[in-house]
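Comment thread on ticket #2218

A.B. wrote:
> Attaching the input chain for the structure job we discussed in standup.
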Amino acid sequence: MPLEGYRIWLGHGFHILVTFIQVRGHIVSFAVVLVAPTSAGERDIARYDTAHGTPHRDLFGLRNGLLRKDWFTTVSANEAFSTAIADFKANHENYLRIFEEN
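C.D. wrote:
> Ran it. Output below, let me know if you need it in another format.
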């Protein structure tokens, strides 16, 4: 069960850091982190992970830190992993706006 990882470049300084562990083709643990160029420098602005045993999304604000956790209790880690990457690819600019406004 080695830890695997890669980076997805989105342009304009945005990128997604992806790390995961899989067993027999199924993801058992992961972190998908959206990194953006912000007014405070390069920062993690949102993250999907399984750190608490259940897939969830953390949203961050520049001034307020952790804004909220959104839990995905009814989906598999594989599904949450795929959703995370697709979400960050499609909505990275919206996440930056949320980060900068909070």
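A.B. wrote:
> Thanks. Noting for the ticket: Strands lie at 4-11, 14-23, 26-38, 41-49, 56-61, 65-71.
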